[in-house]
Design brief:
Blueprint: H1 10-15, E1 17-23, H2 30-39, H3 42-50, H4 54-75, E2 84-86, E3 92-94, E4 98-99, E5 102-111, E6 114-121, E7 125-131, H5 141-144, H6 147-155, H7 161-179, E8 190-193, E9 201-204, E10 215-223, E11 226-233, E12 242-248, E13 252-256, E14 262-265, H8 296-299
Parallel strand pairs: 1-12
Antiparallel strand pairs: 1-6, 2-3, 4-5, 5-6, 7-11, 8-9, 10-11, 10-14, 12-13
Helix pairs in contact: 2-4, 3-4
Bound molecules: coenzyme A.
Length: about 300
């Protein structure tokens, strides 16, 4: 398969929302890594070089090869020739972002072991992934979470709090990454309630943020160790189909089925969620991205 053909079903990538998940440990082939390095711009290569640890250099290389190789295909451009600019607060944007179907939007998140890219046409997107098999810094909830989020968190049995913490954290990050606010956001000024099993309510009390009903969220276990959330803008046309892919950049892309742990947005009754696949998380049928048994705490959500 040539570099040009590694990504199947290109037409659907131009229309819906696509989520591209790369396991960093599956991208170790030396010749592939050399190809990835050849895609980076001079400033990206320099940024990669400056990381102190090899693990961080690897994460950066694969993540940015993922961005360039996928978006290159969607935009019909050589991956190494793509140029990016920065929106307010540093959100990366594609410079010549118009495909034949509209404006190409994307967002990237990476953490220990995993990189996730979300792409869409004509709708703003944000993504966040966290490695959740580590102690949750619950003490920072008071500082970053809304009073409602802290209240709901503290009402849970202590053993359920870490999962809720990471769940809220990735929701909040996905949102500020979609809007592009980044670190400038007042994180306690918007709020997610997860008291309705499998659903979520989203409220904003801060001026300057777009209204709640514009946004839709979905959260899933990307691996037994990673919790991820996408945040999508809902244009007039409503929600698109969201497709998930397990990707080795420039080599393979496999369509996978994902069961959401929770999804929703503003509690407006007209949310057209049926075109998505918001199946409740079923621990008996882990989705193909799961290597082993799903996270017990997350799986125990009703
Ligand atoms: C971008 C930010 C919002 C998220 O960073 P993060 O979670 O550490 O990192 P992620 O892996 O999810 O995302 C990094 C990528 O987001 C993109 N990004 C950078 N700035 C961004 C912005 N303002 N908006 C959207 N995306 C942005 C870049 O592609 C970046 O990748 P790169 O650094 O390799 O170029 C950053 O501002 C940050 O440090 N946030 C932490 C804030 C915090 O304390 N949150 C508490 C949540 S409750």
């Amino acid at each position: 398969m040539s570099e040009r053909e590694w990504l199947p079903d290109l037409d659907s990538c131009l229309t819906g929302v696509n989520v591209w998940v790369s396991r960093l440990d599956q991208c170790r082939d030396e010749s592939l890594l050399r190809q990835y390095a050849s895609l980076l711009s001079a400033s990206e290569s320099e940024r990669r070089r400056r990381f102190l640890f090899e693990g961080d250099r690897h994460t950066y290389l694969v993540s940015h090869a993922l961005v360039r190789s996928v978006i290159g295909q969607i935009a019909g451009e050589e991956p190494s020739r793509l140029t990016f600019s920065e929106g307010r607060n540093g959100k990366p944007l594609l410079h010549h972002a118009l495909s034949r179907l509209g404006r190409i939007e994307f967002n990237l998140s990476h953490t220990d072991g995993l990189a996730i890219l979300c792409t869409a046409t004509n709708r703003v997107v944000g993504v966040d992934v966290e490695h959740v098999h580590r102690p949750a810094p619950l003490e920072v909830a008071q500082r970053y979470f809304s009073s409602l989020e802290v209240e709901e968190l503290m009402q849970l049995p202590p053993e359920d709090r870490p999962t809720r913490f990471w769940s809220l954290w990735t929701l909040k990050e996905a949102y500020i990454k979609a809007t592009g606010h980044g670190l400038s956001a007042e994180l306690s000024q918007f709020s997610f309630s997860l008291s309705r099993p499998g659903a979520l309510d989203f409220r904003i009390s801060m001026e300057g943020f777009a209204e709640c009903s514009r946004w839709w969220f979905a959260q899933w276990a990307a691996t037994p160790m990673h919790l991820a959330t996408i945040c999508l803008e809902q244009p007039e046309a409503g929600l698109p189909e969201v497709r998930f892919w397990e990707v080795v950049p420039l080599r393979s892309a496999r369509d996978v089925v994902v069961n959401f742990l929770t999804c929703g947005g503003d509690s407006a009754p007209s949310l057209p969620t049926t075109t998505l696949k918001p199946a409740p998380f079923d621990p008996a049928t882990p989705h193909p991205l799961l290597l082993g048994p799903p996270l017990p705490k997350i799986a125990s959500r009703p």
